[in-house]
């Protein structure tokens, strides 16, 4: 039995890096579960695993054990809405890459992504890319969002691979860390990573002229070594994020500024909508909680409530 780290997921096969630095394609036999949740991929990039070589001449192996994870990032499976898909595990931090134009900003996506990392206490940075395309009005939008998210403890960076803006700052954030990097399709994630470490050779693709949306260039999650120290896990571009694993109170507890202020609410199970003596509603009135974040919170909590219990737990 050997121990290794999963560095690439390609569906039914996983590339495992051995302790000598070489890699071995491995598969899994049997079922692995995550706290009772159904998974489309029970092994994640970043997992520490025990494996056995199946046959030396075939140079393949079988994963026998997944070591306990310090954390993980999981999203609703894009193929099966009743299952979860593991994006990465054992990370020190996460970075969500956004852009205000090309494609146009979907600000609600930021708060949806933070609902993936916040329950696991994973520090998260928000990177606004393609700054070379921003008009004066776009920069004003960036300034507003920077203020909102820095105020509640998230790191913000402004970057442009074309103009080399913010690249050194991004390297500093990445240095000596295991970092999950994600973002919506078309935000320039691969181009930005290639700028951080020239020669990495991640495949890039232009925005679709027809739809104005990004096209997937990363098909599977993969870990890369940074020559200045650290590792990144590059994940496929995300088109949308839904939540089949959350209950309404999970949403309430993981909007960090809402949760902090909620200690002052009259009711312990306050959802901060129509309840009397709600400290969160008071904080929105006096401007100490962002109304933009609150509106996204309401959208998500109502979406979670609208998912019928039987649908969320339906046997597939």
Question: Can you describe what's shown?
Answer:
The structure is a single chain. With 316 residues, this protein is α/β, with parallel strands linked by helices. The chain folds into 3 domains: 65 residues, Nucleic acid-binding proteins (OB fold (Dihydrolipoamide Acetyltransferase, E2P)); 158 residues, P-loop containing nucleotide triphosphate hydrolases (Rossmann fold, 3-Layer(aba) Sandwich), CATH 3.40.50; 65 residues, Orthogonal Bundle (Ribonucleotide Reductase Protein R1, domain 1), CATH 1.10.40.50. The strands form 3 sheets. It has a 6-stranded mixed β-sheet with strand order 10-9-8-11-13-12, with helices on both faces. Strands 1-2-3-5-4 form a 5-stranded mixed barrel. It has a two-stranded antiparallel sheet with strand order 6-7. Helix 5 runs antiparallel to helix 8.
Number of strands: 13
Low-confidence stretches: 206-218
CATH class descriptor name of the largest domain: Alpha Beta
Q: In sequence order, what are the helices and strands, one letter per element?
A: EEEEEEEEHEHEHEHEEHHHHH
Category by helix and strand content: alpha/beta
Per the CATH scheme, the topology name of the largest domain is Rossmann fold
- The CATH architecture category of the largest domain equals 3-Layer(aba) Sandwich
Strand content: 15-25%
Q: Determine the N-to-C terminus distance.
A: 34 Å
Q: How large, in whole angstroms, is the Cα Rg? A: 21 Å
